[in-house]
Structure formats: structure tokens, C-alpha cells
Amino acid sequence: MHEVIMPKLGLTMESGKIEKWHKKEGDKVEEGDILFEVMTDKVSLEVESYNSGILRKILKVEGDEVPVTEPVAYIGEKDEKIPDTPSETPAGDIKTDVSVTAAVSGEEKSSAATEPSADTAGANSIAKDPEAADGRIKISPLARKIAGEKNIDINTVKGSGPRGRIVKEDIDKILADVKKADTSEQRIKISPLARKTAKDIGIDWKTERIPGSGPGGRIIKEDIVAYNKGRVKAVPLGAEVSGSMRIRSSVKLEGIRKVIAQRMSLSKSTIPHIVLNAKADATNLMQFREQLKEGVLKKHEVKITFTDLILKATALALRDNIEINSSFQGDDYIIYEDVNVGMAISIDEGLIVPTIFSCDNLEIVDIARKRIDLIGKARSSKLALEEIQGGTFTVTNLGMFGIRNFSAIINPPQAAILAVGEIYEEPAVINGGKIGIRSFMDLSVSCDHRIIDGAVGARFLQNIVELIENPAMLVI
Question: N or C terminus: which one in the chain shows less Cβ crowding within 10 Å?
């Protein structure tokens, strides 16, 4: 019997939402067939089967949010017994079955292999046998499942099984100890999962009267969810709930939006930003684009935008100011050889930053093609994992929204980000003291001040200004 699990696709992934099953129970499955689609905290991916057989049972349906490494289905022979729990099949006989169409980058594989954590321990999408690698937590499938359901941190559990392996009895003992110690909660019967759900939603199950539908009137997860739905209905949108404040809606962050919130909070709380501003005369850049636009469109069927020119200028400036193309991780100041520029793209779910690799070595028309391809994939949720990893710098452009200037938040673990505003006209002194109308563009670079000094950032920004004002240098 092959156990299909929710794969861990990156070190930050904690769970995935099943968007669509491509197979139904009873269907024949061949190795390489697409089983289901999963929405991670970054992209939507198709998950393939490692093995052939019959899809005997689907454990998680479309719309379910599933923690990584948790079983979602079983594949086996037609008459093979379906385990009620993962423990019914001996640990050595349960084979994890998952492959993802988007390959995890070599860098990510290396990190996953050398930096095991509670999340990656037992992550069968990376290591088939979670007990085979030194330093990984040894735990039986059933014990892992129960620990996940009861919200128990397996890092704190001492295993009593062979070679210190955590078994079901170890988890049961912790649950029993908690039950004995928590005498104040014995009056209200509530499952650990229901308790966790109530905490996540913001329900105080100790003070609010929640009817239980479980054995002996025990409150279970479904009771919390049902109670919350009734509570939301009882407060109409727009109704006054606290003082003069009226709530239109309240939604728990998830997916990409949740990751954005976490990463931006991490960036602002741990990275001291130094923000440098400059104004570039974009008159020549506008003329340069006009000269390129028609010829490139006719020959290559690609429309050149100002974003393409900015990406090229940024990549060249990074190559000449390589200290900016860097990262500060732990105690290490890392300078990257490859200039991989991330391009911030707004999508319905929030913001995503796909990568244009070796951007400094690409021609402008190739950058334009890549930009068009990445934007299309981003807005149709078709970006592959490798297309959103490996960036060494990010460019974000709000000029198309009429924003003149703004300061961007660094995209960790990168060390800097360039913010680009709109092109606007303004009187300027030209040609020996005469006043004329010129086009300008405001630029702002935010740098990690722990490793990038103001003078270093200033030289980099001035280099970009020089390229914008002398755009012929972009094709030399």
C-alpha cells in the first residue's frame, strides 16, 4: 500500500490546499499520472504519482488545508486492505507516493538536506525514509498523525521505541499527563483539535456556551466551526460591534497573503533599512524606447516597455556594483555571482516575485519575452517553483498607477530592492541656462544597512541613473 502525502515544497511551506483531484477513488493510476493540484503558500502545483496501482481511498477532499507530510490518499492493489490509520500498515511497508511537476531547485534541496527542522523532519517528499538521515526526528506514522491532530510539538517528546523512536504510546502519555494536570478544563469536554481551532478563530470556549456533538457531549472541531458560522451570522456586516467601529468583514489570512504578511513583518523587524532616493532625467530613455519599439515589435513581435529597460539597467548596475547583489544570512555576508533579478507582480491573491535569471546577460528583447511569460504564468497561477526562487535582487514598479515615488520593503533574504515611480514632466534648466520641459523618473533603493553602506548604495543608484540618462549604454 502506498501512502500519498502532502509534499513539503520548500522550507517555508507548512501546509497546502488541495484545489482539484484529477483521479477519483477506484481509478487506475500509472506512475507519472497527475493525482491532484495543490496551492502552496507561493504557487499552484500539480502532484504526480510515483507508483502504479488503484487509487483506493481519498483522505482529503478539494478545499482541505493539509499539513505537510500528512496522508491524503492511498494507492494499492485492487483487493489490498485499506488502513484505518497509517499504523495498520507496518512502518516499513508504507511507501510515500508523491512527485511534483515543478522541480525544487538544487539550492533548496541542499538547504532541506543540511538544515533539518521540526517541519522537515520526516518530510517524505525530500527523504523517503525520515529515520535514515542523522539528526532527523524518529517517529512512527501514527504517532506523527496523532501529534499533528493534538497540536503536540514532537521536538519536546522523548521516544521510547527502538533507537529512541517516538511511538503512539509516547504521544498518549503526554495527552494523559495534560489531562491530569488541566483539572480546570475537565468540566468542559473538548478535543485538542477543537481547542486549537477555537484559538485560531478567536473563540473563548471556556466562557462561551458551545454545544458539543461528540461522545458524552464533547466539543469537537465541527462544533467550533458551526458555532463560529452562527456567531458571524448574528453580527450583520456593517453592524456596530465595539464603540463606533463597524466591521465589514473579517478573514483569516492564508496562502500567499499570509506569507506576504509574515515576510514583510520579518523584513521590517530584523533588517535595518537605509533608503536612498534619486531623480533621473528620462527624456532620452523615452526617445530610445520609441526608436526600439516599432522595429522590435515588427521583427520579434514583442512590445518593449519601460520596465524592460529598467530591468536591464538594474542588472548592469548590479554587475558593476556586485556588493548590492548580496544577502546577510546568519553571520555570513554572501555576494552572489549570478545576477538574478526578481520582478514584483501584482496578482489577485497579493504579490509574487518571479525571477529573471542572469538578467545582466540577456538582450532587452529577451528580457521583454521573459517578462511577458512570467506575468502570464503569475496571473494564471502557473508559475513553477524554480521560477520564484533564486532571486538576488528585486525591482518593484508602481509607475503605471501614477505613483511618483515610494520606499519598498526588502524582500528577504535579499539585501536590497529598487522602487520605480512614474515618468512625469517638469521644467528644467537645459542648454546653457534655457528653461525647457523634460521627463523625469524618481528612483528609490532600500538597502540592508548591516552589510551595505550608504556610499555603496549611492554608487549603485547613481549607476542606474547614468544608464537611464544614457540608454545607448544598455545595448553596448
Answer: C
